Amino acid sequence: MRILLTEDELKEGVAKMATQISERYADRPLTIIGILTGSVVLMADVIRLLEMPLRVGVLQARSYHGATTTRGPLIINDELMPDIEGRDVLLLDDIFDTGHTLKEVTARIRKLNPATVRSAVLLYKEGRQEVASVPDFIGFNIPDEFVVGYGLDYEDAYRNLPFLAALEEEDLQHTSDTHNT
Ligand code: IMP
Ligand code: MG
To answer: Which residues are near ligand 2, the ion (C-beta closer than 5 Å)?
Structure first.
């Protein structure tokens, strides 16, 4: 694999995004909802840079698909989420790829009557979008490559890498049944 963003570059980008979030919400209480599992590293880093009154929750979104190109239904588990009615909610995810995950999760969250819903992603993969909406906060724009590290996985491996790396052809072993979280 090839390093795309070093630990220092990630730190700088996350700090910039945290500053933008702070400027947007100022001292208003905020509820951050991390989308499991890819957002865990980002969430740990971002929340420690925010100073407004903050609540933290998680939900899980999983998309099953047979081959890398076909999409299965998205399964959203919100049982671990705090009550968000009337609150300002910021959804946090690792990467905005096609955009379907964030679009569907946002729709689900809106049904719970929050005051506002915005979204922040570490990575925005260029040229892949299939939905009209874009995240409100973006850490980095990256080229259309499969990336791992800093929370992102390939078949549940590599989430613990402190840097972001692009997988190369010899790193990829396609299996018939995978899922994304
Ligand atoms: P979506 O296509 O925007 O719905 O993204 C769905 C999910 O696919 C993301 O939340 C990630 O979990 C996963 N994903 C998309 N691209 C990558 C990648 O390059 N590396 C690792 N996971 C990815
Ligand atoms: Mg994910």
So the answer is: 38
Pocket (CB within 6 angstroms of ligand 1)? 38, 63, 93-101, 146-148, 152-153, 180
Sheet with strand 147-148: strands edge to edge: 2-5, 164-166, 147-148
Task: Give me the amino acid identity at 99.
Answer: G
Residue 96 CA, ligand 1 centroid: distance in Å: 7
The CA distance from 78 to 60, in Å, is 7
pLDDT digits (tens, 9 = 90+) for 89-138: 999 999 999 999 999 999 999 999 999 999 999 999 999 999 999 999 99
Q: Determine the pLDDT at residue 170.
A: 87
CA distance 137 to 128: 17
Instruction: Say which residues have a Cβ less than 8 Å from residue 137's Cβ, sequence separation at least 6.
Output: 17, 20, 21, 24, 118, 119, 120, 121
For a ligand 1 pocket test, name from 2, 91, 97 the mutation site with the most ligand atoms within 8 angstroms of its C-beta.
Answer: 97
- For CA atoms 112, 114, 117, 121, the dihedral sign is negative
- Average pLDDT score over residue span 5-22: 98
Tokens for 75?
């399964």
Q: Which two tokens stand for residue 8?
A: 């220092």
Q: What are the pLDDT digits (tens) for 87-99?
A: 999 999 999 999 9
